## 1
Amino acid sequence: MARVPNPDLGDLRGLIACPRCDLLHHTQQLSDGERAKCARCGSLLIWPRTGAFLHVVAFSFTGMILMIGAIFFPFLKISAQGLSHESSIFGVAMAFSDGWIAPLALAVLAMIVALPVFRFAALIYTLWPLANGRPAYRHSTTVFRLVEELQPWAMAEIFIIGTAVALVKVAGLASVSLGPAFWAFCVLIIVIALKNSFMSNWTIWDAISQK
Ligand SMILES: [Zn+2]
């Protein structure tokens, strides 16, 4: 495996590892619009953009509002043989809230709702002072580390893909109409993708540690 020869391990802040292939690189400050890519696999490592922190805060706030709407508005309506049933995600979770399946309902609610909302809130906490040119709030490093560590567990996008696959099956048995919460989730995925396009983690770590 190719490595940077004798990296100065005394100052890890000057190093960045490629998230895809682990190659270590020495970092340097980039000017706006410049991008740093991995020398081996070409993965994007650092991409500072003007106003990026404010954009991430705005997208996080939008995401939180969409998520709250997505929980309580009707998600879908199923009709078959003259009977119909409409349900929200919160209603479904409550329907399974007792009995042996309750832990599963809780886990689903945590991963598709609670964790994404927590990550949005944590990003706003971390980036709001930085976006306004002020020093980071206390514990910003802990909060942002949590944002990174919880990323694999926040599954709003996976939920909507899973739902879409399940709907293809259900559509053959009953007529299904999608409610506002389903579309709120779809917009949420676009908002998350836009947020990620502005979010250069290295730039955020650099800004937090300069307080
Ligand atoms: Zn790489």
Note: Residues 18, 20-21, 23, 38, 40-41, 43 surround zinc ion (CB under 6 Å).
## 2
Amino acid sequence: MEAIRNVAIAGASGALGSPIFQALLNSGHFNLTVLTRHSSEAQFPYSVKIIRVDYSSISELTQALTGQDAVVSVLTTSAMETQIPLIEAAVDAGVRRFLPSEFCANIGNPKAASLPVYHSKVQLHDVIRQKADENPNFTYSLIRNGPFLDWSLAFGFFLNLKGGETSLYDGGDRPFSTTTLATIGQAVVEVLRNLHETKNRAVLIQDLITTQNEMLAVARSVKPEIIWTPKNVSTAEMETMAQQKYASGSMDLVASVGFFCRSVFAEGYGGEFKKVDNDLLGIPLMSKADLEALIKSAL
Ligand SMILES: NC(=O)c1ccc[n+]([C@@H]2O[C@H](COP(=O)([O-])OP(=O)(O)OC[C@H]3O[C@@H](n4cnc5c(N)ncnc54)[C@H](OP(=O)(O)O)[C@@H]3O)[C@@H](O)[C@H]2O)c1
């Protein structure tokens, strides 16, 4: 397969989009174009080509994507359907590889895939698979990384940073795969450089497998002056509450947390990746010392 040179990135100003944008830029392998909404106030370096788009206009998107070899979508969670016209336009423009805004739990696991928060991502798989079946020149990769390690630590998702009561999901001993934003950026670069091996499939990566109790032990050793009081939280009960909130029309981040926790920490939901693509992509596993450094900086 001919190497990818021209890459368009959508959502480059976001929490994950920014580090992916930086990784693509810093790699020096690609000519980058940023797609951004007409209404966006995001700022990008002057050296990068910016195209403002209406994500509902296939003709506008096709024009924007003409000449692009690959599209990396890092659009926000609530805009998954926005990617359907983007995929249509990518096919029309002759784009060869599309990375949709996946970057989540292992939703190849049927239990995780059944959680409503992932439905829009799963529905997109059907669209993208069909397009790839119909157009052999059009291919895709779905990057799955588990919870963002540094981002989730900073938001207190794994551990209450201030001390006091801290939630341990299903006891806190369930191993899960987790990945930093920078590593996901590296994975995107390497997927685009390993086209054949990553064609039309999920690509799983992780920095490490850990548990909440392991993180808590590190936190206690780093900051002995902070007192944590663990509180066991059932992810089954969290899911029930999340289902109720969704049924009542409330689908915001707070309502979704129960589903996220279920997919990461619950038994049988695939939170601990069994087979990863780290070796293929040249992504080393993180050491205990690295994890300690991350937790220390978050605290
Ligand atoms: N695994 C995890 O722990 C985890 C955590 C969070 C997110 N994620 C996933 O990571 C991906 C990116 O999420 P994120 O939190 O980084 O996104 P984000 O920061 O909320 O938004 C990314 C970009 O999407 C564009 N955007 C925002 N609203 C839009 C709309 N209504 N229509 C079209 N574009 C819109 C904006 O770009 P412009 O302003 O340039 O147009 C924005 O900068 C998603 O797939 C999400 O589900 C995973």
Note: The chain has twelve helices and eleven strands.
